[in-house]
Structures are given as C-alpha cells and as structure tokens.
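User: Reviewer 2 asked us to show a designed sequence for the structure in our supplementary figure. I'm pasting the structure tokens here. Could you produce the per-position amino acids so we can include them in the response letter?
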C-alpha cells in the first residue's frame, strides 16, 4: 500500500513538472510569434515609407495632374523649378537681345523688350526666393524632412548661381554701355541692392535649413540606434528561446532517467515483496517443524517415563 502511494506521488510530480515545462515553453513560443508578427508589421510600414521616399525624384518631375496628391513643399519645389527654367529661357533671350542691340543701336523696341525681360527675370527671382523661404518653413518629419532640406538647399544654390550669372551679365552689359556712351542706367544701384538683399536672404535660409537638416539627421541616427537595439533584443530573445529549448531537453532527459529509475525500483520492490512472501512461508514452516519436533520430544519423554 505504501509502495503504491509512493508511485502515485512520484508520477504526479513528474506530470506536474512536465506540464509546467510545456506551459512555460508554449508561452515563450507565443511571445516569440507575437514579436515576429509585430516586427513584420513594422518592416512593412518602414518599407511603405521607404517606397514613398524613393519616388521623390519622380514626384518632382510629375505632371500637373498629380499636384493635388503631392505635399505642399513638393508643389512649391515644382513651381520653383518652373520659375528657374523660365529665368534661364529669359536670360538667353536677354543675351540674344543685347547681341541684336549691338548690331542695331537705333532700334528702340529692343530696349523696351530688354527692359521687360529684365523686370520679368527680377520678378521671377523674387518669387522663387519667396517660395523657397515658404518651403523651409513647412514642417516635415523623418526622412521627408531630410529630403525637403536637400531640395531646399539645391534650389537655393540654383537660384544663387543664376542670380550671380545674371548679375555678372548685367555688370558686363553696363560696362559695355559705359565704354560706348559713358551712360549708366539710373536704376542699376537699386538692382544691386535688390540682388544683395536677395543673396543675404538666401544665405539666411540656407543656414537655417542646414541647422534643421542636421537636427533631423541626428533624430534619424537616434531612430537607427533604437532599431539596432531592438535587433539586439530580438537576438537575445532568440537565444533565450534556444536556452529554454535546451533546458526542456535536459528536463526531458532527466524525466526519462527518473522514469527508468522508477521502473527499476518497481521491479526491485516487486522482487522484494516476492522474497518477503517466501521468507514468511519459510518462517512459518520452520515454526511448524520446530513445534512438531518439540511435540515429538515431549511424547518420547513421556513414553519412556
């Protein structure tokens, strides 16, 4: 009875241990699968963002039918590029007109057309500078802010280069006029002041945008560092799962060894019970033989007396 109770307690302990190990591992595997699912969702979200950012250059060259789907700063960038293209075309027209004027000094219509083109170029420069300034003030986040900052710097550099080239052409043209007639246009100083103001404004915009881009790049580096930390955590979790699997293997091995020991103990206990029964029978026969021997001796003594 005691042996059967011991076996029941032993088997109950083994069952509880195995169930606890299975439950622990199932929870760990559930957490691992949940982590993998969340990581896949995060990668999909990042992939969608990356795909959107890879199309930035194509969006800059998209047609006007897709403007409503573009962000405001990208619409301004397209508008600035169109203004700069118009400026280049008008600058070419101005150079051609000045060449024609040198061949035909008495044509007043050329002077009027050159004045109109010069005023138009100045207006386009002013509008492009204002649009770039508006772009720099439009908020953006993450990689979009980095791309916007790069676009602002590129457009500002293009405006500055075209403005410098236009100012040099104006200076050369005025120097030629001075050499020819000694007359300088009255509004040349005003144009120089406007050019200096425009260049100063562009320098301020470039400096502010450069600082903002550096801040955004630092934020991006922090995000990359946090993603790296998450990857290390995932590796640690995978190592933990492997360790748990190794622990489960060890527990399984120990359970197998314990079960073999229990079976061997049961066999030994069964043999001991058989030996005990045989010993009791032998002891009983010994007692009977001793009693019979004593009885025979008593009978013999009585018969002799």
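Assistant: Here is a per-position design you can include in the supplement:
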């Amino acid at each position: 009875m005691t042996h059967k109770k011991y076996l029941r307690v032993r088997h109950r302990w083994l069952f509880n241990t195995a169930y606890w190990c299975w439950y622990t591992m199932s929870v760990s595997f559930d957490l691992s699968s949940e982590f993998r699912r969340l990581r896949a969702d995060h990668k999909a979200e990042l992939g969608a963002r990356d795909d959107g950012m890879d199309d930035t250059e194509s969006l800059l060259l998209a047609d006007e039918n897709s403007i409503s789907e573009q962000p405001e700063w990208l619409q301004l960038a397209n508008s600035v590029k169109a203004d700069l293209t118009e400026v280049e075309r008008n600058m070419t027209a101005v150079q051609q007109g000045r060449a024609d004027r040198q061949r035909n000094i008495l044509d007043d219509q050329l002077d009027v057309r050159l004045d109109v083109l010069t005023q138009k170029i100045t207006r386009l420069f002013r509008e492009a500078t204002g649009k770039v300034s508006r772009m720099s003030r439009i908020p953006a986040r993450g990689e979009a802010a980095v791309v916007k900052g790069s676009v602002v710097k590129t457009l500002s550099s293009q405006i500055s280069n075209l403005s410098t080239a236009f100012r040099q052409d104006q200076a050369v043209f005025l120097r030629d006029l001075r050499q020819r007639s000694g007359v300088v246009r009255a509004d040349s100083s005003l144009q120089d002041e406007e050019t200096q103001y425009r260049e100063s404004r562009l320098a301020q915009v470039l400096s502010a945008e450069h600082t903002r881009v550096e801040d955004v790049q630092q934020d991006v580096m922090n995000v990359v560092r946090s993603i790296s930390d998450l990857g290390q955590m995932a590796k640690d979790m995978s190592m933990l799962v492997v360790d748990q699997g190794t622990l489960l293997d060890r527990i399984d091995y120990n359970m197998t060894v314990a079960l073999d020991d229990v079976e061997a103990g049961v066999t030994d206990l069964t043999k001991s019970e058989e030996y005990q029964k045989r010993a009791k029978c032998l002891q009983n026969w010994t007692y009977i033989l001793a009693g019979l021997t004593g009885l025979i001796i008593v009978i013999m003594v009585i018969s002799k007396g």
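For the response letter, you might also mention the following. DSSP finds six helices and no strands in the chain. The radius of gyration is 49 Å.
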